[in-house]
Specification:
Number of domains: 1
Order of helices and strands: EHHEEEHEH
CATH class: Alpha Beta
Largest sheet: 5 strands, mixed
Number of helices: 4
Helix content: 25-40%
CATH superfamily: Gcn5-related N-acetyltransferase (GNAT)
CATH topology: Aminopeptidase
CATH architecture: 3-Layer(aba) Sandwich
Strand order of the largest sheet: 1-2-3-4-5
Distance between the termini: 45 Å
Radius of gyration: 16 Å
Length: 159
């Protein structure tokens, strides 16, 4: 599949099942690297509710890559208020971006990210954040090629 044989578009209600399946696969991929990412049993309904919530939220956006093989990727972004003391008023966080393994390295992830960048810029937002696990070398490299750099380290302590 070539990135030219499909397109990024806003998600539609008919895309819900495909988005949930991709999201579930993304979480499983992360959980294989670190069990803290594992979902609870029966969480598919929670993912479906999250997709529906993003779709209804005027401060959120959800895009899919719709190609010859159907929906093989999606990106979700949220516009969030900055802390009251910050000079910036708003920022966008790309909360999820996934492309099915068989469709990776074809420009689909970049096309989805660029849709989020355009949406953020059109919303008057000057900064985008993304969280990437330190265990996800591919994700780290992907976002860095798009101009992202270290900003804040989130440290955790497991008890």
């Amino acid at each position: 599949m070539s990135a030219r044989r499909g397109d990024v578009r806003p998600a539609r209600p008919a895309d819900r099942a495909a988005v949930v399946a991709l999201w579930d696969a993304l979480v499983a991929e992360h959980a294989a690297r670190d069990p803290v990412f594992a979902l609870r049993e029966g969480s598919a309904a929670t993912l479906l509710a999250a997709v529906d919530g993003i779709s209804r939220d005027p401060a959120a956006a959800l895009w899919v890559w719709d190609g010859v093989d159907g929906v093989v990727g999606f990106c979700a972004a949220l516009r969030r208020a900055a802390p009251a003391t910050a000079a910036e008023r708003w920022r966008v966080e790309i909360t999820e971006l996934v492309v099915a393994p068989a469709a990776r390295r074809r420009g689909i992830g970049k096309a989805l990210a660029l849709a989020a960048f355009d949406w953020a810029a059109g919303s008057g937002v000057a900064r985008i954040e993304v969280r990437v696990s330190v265990h996800n070398d591919g994700g780290q490299a992907f976002w860095r090629t798009l101009g992202f750099a270290d900003f804040v380290n989130v440290l955790d302590r497991r008890l």
